[in-house]
Design brief:
With about 400 residues, the protein is α/β, with parallel strands linked by helices. It is built from 13 helices and 15 strands. The N and C termini lie far apart (about 50 Å). This is Adenylyl-sulfate kinase.
Length: about 400
């Protein structure tokens, strides 16, 4: 079978294949993961600080081969499954199939073996970076004492990756000739201590004699009215979410202070998701497509309004992560009109058809709706007008500073 890992897993896969995660030769399984959490070692006692895992949402058995793809479908590696846990944790040896294709600054990428060859046996000071280096004096002094080369390793993961590489190239201009800049796609770990240990191990794999960790950047977000925003409505069919979303779109266009993208569930079904069924798999794919388009609009400071049913909590969380990963904000609005009221309205006759068995897997009747417990705003349209509901959303946007 084929599988596309998520961005963090893909970054770890590249480091596994290149040897930057030496001595690891594959993703961690249950036993290794347990000892990493408990003792900071692999199951055989080899020191290793942080989880490096792959979760596979598919039924595979030991001995099966899984081809791991990049987002564009390029086969990167073949994994022979050694074990898969109930939560999807999958481990097994990896075999490289091709070299990952890189975007900005791809020409600077090097494997640890290539960097060691370029160093030619010289001692090296490696500096791992997640942001600009404001003071180069410690780097210069340490390299002089070491009488070695300087190796700048910008940790180019995610949206901020190109900016970190640019910061490394600016620093190189003020450092001695022969300074190397090699981007490394190391995703940050949640615990600073573990992140630092992993940076040191990667630096050593690239030939470092000594390692300095550059300071973490201070992120000061812009004001809310300049940041991208996705207003994501969820609710049963007939709850009023599409009508409120259209009213919000119209009100925002009248204000004229934000660029607005409107993604209604039915409209998307006719265009972006034409041909998809109403199976759980296809409904999830439909929501992911809506989330992707909304995140792209928000990436550039736009405001996207989405109004699908989005019945599953895990898929809504995926959309939130998509949006927040591009530096935008996410506002979840649950239009919590009860099923009885939605069915009473039933303007399209959908509930009647679902009750008659003519529409399989219909949300609220033959398929579940998972009510969100993380909604930023909850609206029941049973006893309020659409105008009042739109006003409540607008008031939330104003109080949050997203519109002025």
């Amino acid at each position: 079978m084929e599988w596309t890992p998520d961005p963090r897993e893909l970054a770890d896969l590249e480091l596994l294949l290149s040897g930057a995660f030496e001595p690891l030769t594959g993703f961690l399984g249950h036993d290794d993961l347990h000892t990493v959490h408990e003792r900071g070692t692999l199951a055989d006692g080899t020191p290793w600080p942080a989880p490096v895992t792959l979760h596979l949402d598919a039924a595979v058995e030991p001995g099966d081969e899984v081809t791991l793809l990049d987002p564009e479908g390029l086969p990167l590696a073949a994994m022979t499954v050694a074990a898969r846990e109930p939560d999807g944790l999958t481990s097994g040896p990896l075999k490289a199939l091709s070299t990952p294709e890189h975007g900005p600054f791809g020409r600077l990428r090097r494997t640890p073996a290539q960097v060691k060859e370029a160093l030619g046996g010289r001692p090296a000071l490696a500096v791992t970076m997640r942001g600009p280096l404001d003071d180069l004096s410690e780097i210069l002094a340490t390299a002089k004492e070491l009488d070695g080369a300087i190796l700048l390793l910008p940790l180019a993961y995610g949206e901020a990756g190109p900016a970190v590489v640019r910061a490394a190239l600016r620093a190189k201009e003020q450092l001695p000739a022969g300074t190397l800049v090699v981007p490394v796609p190391l995703a940050p770990r949640d615990e600073p201590e573990l992140d630092l240990e992993l940076r040191e191990l990667v630096a050593t794999a690239y030939g470092a004699t000594e390692h300095l960790a550059g300071p973490d950047p201070v992120h000061i977000p812009g004001p809310p009215h300049r940041r991208g925003l996705v207003v994501f409505f969820t609710g049963l069919s007939g709850s009023g979410k599409s009508t409120i979303a259209r009213g919000l779109r119209d009100a925002l266009l009248e204000l004229g202070s934000r660029t607005v993208t409107y993604l209604d569930g039915d409209v998307v079904r006719h265009l972006l998701s034409k041909g998809l069924t109403f199976s759980k798999q296809d409904r999830d794919l439909n929501i992911r497509r809506i989330g992707f388009v909304a995140a792209e609009a928000a990436r550039h400071g736009g405001l996207a309004v989405c109004a699908p049913i989005a019945p599953y909590a895990a898929t809504r969380e995926e959309v939130r992560e998509m949006v927040e990963s591009v530096g935008a904000d996410f506002l979840l609005v649950h239009v919590a009109t009860p099923l009885e009221e939605c069915e009473r309205r039933d303007r399209k006759g959908l509930y009647a058809k679902a009750r008659a068995g003519l529409i399989p897997e219909f949300t609220g009747v033959s398929d579940p709706y998972e009510e969100p417990d993380d909604a930023d705003l909850v609206i029941d349209t049973t006893h309020i007008s659409i105008e009042a509901a739109v006003s409540r959303v607008l008031d939330t946007l104003k109080s949050g500073g997203w519109i002025r």
